[in-house]
């Protein structure tokens, strides 16, 4: 198979964040539990005007800066924060970006695995149509609810990837292994906008899936941890990925363990501040690693994608010569640094101001408008978005 993979990447998050020490103090919890035990420092807070659509469009705009739209055939959006039970969020994204009508736009759902399913659909497509490209986006607002155990693992953001047969960042190999088993670790019934989660069980099953797939991957390929410069994980919170990484490190020598542990820390840096972005979170870890540390072209990277319910895939990729010139570390760090810190009262107010699940009209609070795209409100049961001029 000829080379296919990621040509360009983009990222977006909201303009507000909550500090996890502030949240811990308000909830009567030792701040070390949140910052060390769970491993989260901050979380992006989404006002109602920032949803899976507006964040996806912003990440796509970031990825497409300076790129020609020639050959773009599909927008595939992985999300579990659907804004409509029928219409794909990708259709709104296409309009906001002003993309031509000769395009396919589809939403892919399987919890946090959705963007990976979209990625493999895109890779198959561009390997058959070498002059075509696909935009794959993972975009979510992670909501567990005020005063819940999962609250510390919320967040909001999106990662967009341009997939082509000219993969200037990473070429993705055809060596993946995958599995699906029905499991009640995390789900969201249609009547609620917050996830339900058996948190400890989700950690257990995530590590189990990783161990099984890592074993199968090694049997299939004959590779070992020494062949990899980094392991990237779906990171709903940093500690979860670290638990899976320990499964790799337990059989490894000191040098391999030190290298993989250091790279894991770099890959978790953005996520510790942005929080859980569900389907985009594995790819935020990739961006965090590539923008946080110089690596040699040709380096092999392992990816573990996991979506509750539950489905997982383990695959590998190879870093391309000149990959760094395709990235924007200063722009992405600035997005994170320039968010405004909200206190717990303001966060709770924003969390509770969610569009109603009834036919009434709704207006988003203009005070919180930010980013290049926004949900303005709901009129006649239709979502109304706006873009910067
Ligand atoms: N200092 C340092 N660490 C501390 C601590 C302190 N004062 N107090 C507790 N901890 C540690 C615990 O030892 C534990 O670490 P461990 O997992 O290595 O054992 C960790 O902090 C969490 O403590 P725990 O008591 O398990 O927390 P919890 O019952 O509040 O739940 C989660 C934590 C992660 C299970 C919960 O936040 C959750 O359900 N999150 C969502 C999970 C999810 O998204 N799953 C699906 C996505 S794939």
Keywords:
binds coenzyme A, 3-stranded mixed sheet, 18 strands, 10-stranded mixed sheet, Peroxisomal Thiolase, Chain A, domain 1, 389 residues, 2 domains, alpha+beta
Description:
The chain has helices spanning 20-27, 31-38, 52-64, 89-97, 114-128, 199-221, 238-249, 254-274, 281-292, 329-337, 344-352; strands spanning 5-13, 16-19, 42-45, 72-78, 104-108, 133-142, 155-164, 170-172, 177-180, 186-187, 196-197, 230-233, 300-307, 311-319, 340-342, 362-363, 373-379, 382-387. It is α+β, with helices and mostly antiparallel strands and 389 residues long. It has two domains: 5-169 and 327-387, Peroxisomal Thiolase, Chain A, domain 1; 171-322, Thiolase/Chalcone synthase (Peroxisomal Thiolase, Chain A, domain 1). Strands 1, 4, 5, 6, 7, 8, 9, 12, 13 and 14 form a ten-stranded mixed beta sheet that branches. The chain is globular. 49% of the residues are buried. The mean pLDDT is 97. The structure holds coenzyme A (COA). Coenzyme A (COA) binds at residues 30, 32-33, 36-38, 112, 149-150, 152-153, 186, 197, 199-200, 202, 206, 236, 239, 306, 308.
């Amino acid at each position: 198979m000829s080379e296919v993979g990621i040509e360009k990447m983009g990222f977006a998050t909201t303009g507000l964040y909550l500090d996890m020490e502030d949240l811990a103090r308000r909830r009567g919890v030792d701040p070390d539990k949140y910052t060390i035990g769970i491993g989260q420092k901050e979380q992006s807070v989404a006002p109602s005007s920032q949803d899976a659509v507006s964040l996806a469009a912003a990440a796509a705009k970031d990825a497409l800066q300076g790129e020609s739209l020639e050959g773009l055939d599909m927008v595939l959006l992985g999300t579990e924060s659907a804004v409509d039970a029928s219409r794909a969020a990708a259709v709104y994204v296409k309009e906001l970006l002003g993309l031509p009508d000769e395009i396919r736009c589809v939403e892919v759902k399987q919890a946090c695995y959705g963007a990976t399913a979209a990625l493999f659909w895109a890779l198959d497509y561009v390997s058959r149509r070498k002059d075509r490209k696909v935009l794959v986006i993972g975009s979510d607002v992670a909501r567990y609810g005020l005063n819940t155990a999962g609250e510390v693992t919320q967040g909001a953001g999106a990662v967009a990837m341009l997939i082509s047969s000219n993969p200037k960042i990473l070429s993705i190999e055809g060596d993946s292994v995958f599995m699906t088993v029905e499991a009640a670790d995390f789900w969201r019934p249609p009547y609620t906008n917050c996830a339900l989660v058996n948190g400890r069980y989700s950690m257990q099953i995530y590590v189990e899936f990783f161990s099984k797939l890592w074993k199968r991957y090694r049997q299939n390929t004959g590779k070992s941890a020494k062949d990899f410069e980094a392991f990237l994980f779906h990171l709903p919170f940093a500690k979860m990925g670290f638990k899976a990484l320990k499964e790799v490190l337990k059989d490894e020598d000191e040098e391999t363990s030190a290298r993989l542990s250091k790279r894991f820390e770099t890959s978790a840096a953005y996520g510790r501040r942005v929080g859980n972005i569900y389907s985009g979170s594995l790819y935020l870890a990739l961006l965090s690693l590539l923008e946080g540390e110089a690596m040699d072209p040709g380096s092999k990277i392992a990816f573990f994608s996991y979506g509750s319910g539950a489905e997982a895939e383990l695959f590998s990729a190879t870093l391309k010569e000149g990959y760094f010139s395709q990235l924007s570390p200063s722009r992405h760090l600035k997005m994170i640094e320039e968010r405004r810190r909200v206190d717990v009262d303001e966060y709770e107010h924003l969390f509770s101001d969610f569009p109603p699940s009834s036919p009434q009209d709704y207006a988003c609070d203009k005070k919180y408008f930010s980013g290049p795209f926004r949900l303005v409100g709901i009129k006649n049961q239709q979502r109304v978005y706006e873009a910067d001029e």
